[in-house]
Amino acid sequence: MHFNQRLGLPILTFVNLVFSEVLLDNKINETPAFLGNFLIEDSCQFQLCGSSYSREWGGEPPLAGSCSGDCSLLAITLNSNRFHKEFLWSSCARMCGNKFPADRNPEYKNRFLCMESCYSAYSLVSPHHNIARYCMKAACNPTQTEQNSFQIDCFERCTEHVSSTLPESTWKVWAQSLASTCSNQTKQQDILYSRLKCADGAVWEYISQVETKAEEKHASLCLDTLCNSQVKCGVSCLNHIHNLHKKQREEWSKCSLSMECSKKSDWHARQQCADACLLHMEQEREREREMRLRSESQTQLKLQYSSPGWIPCLQISLFTASLSILVFV
User: How far apart are CA 90 and CA 48, in angstroms?
Assistant: First the structure.
């Protein structure tokens, strides 16, 4: 551990870093090579290291700084649960080995970095194992992907799409659609895009018709116009509309399509613009109502003062007032 590189850190952060390294060192020292897993060792030897390092596999424990030793360390560092060891490691090793073949790229650094990137992609949807499995097997089926593309890149695009554009509560519906009807989508040039959008469409149909029971015009406005087909944004939009009184919803929709609000590309900015527009309309309506009431009141007074019976009443009032003054005197 290189303490001198961290002298500029706050003391608590420094202590935590050192403590973390001690725990990691203890874990590495106490854990058998390759986690005692023959599948992990096999993928290290043939997919991540390759024939250039075959001499390192002869029954001796892997040495630090060698490909076998670094691969064992990588496995111990990355794998923390059963899914990691039984599915993710071998799948990532296969995809990374295909992108950086050991026979053409003897240096193993890129394959190891690819492994870390693969695990990071899974962490976006963890612990939803089916999302990872369906992204690899259905969305990114290696026999159906585009030429000159790699399954690992497709997998990373898939998990990023799920984590950034879909509410987590809809992931199960999305995965089921992807693994069934949407896995055969090949209509567009970008096969992955067509499959992701197919599953997105199934999720949106479920949300708009089953969960929120939204009106079709509001569902179309949110997803197609305001949210650029992003389901997570569309859900926020529908929820916002449903939180308004029914009389306000149509006006809010018109506001969201106004010239001023249409300039806002971000959903939150457009929502705020439409909210401000709706508030302004309500304030204007209230101001006009008060002006109308004031005008009607003034009109009634004028009519009352101009009526024929008003003058005698005024004379009687004046006569009564004069008598009161004389009596007082």
Answer: 10
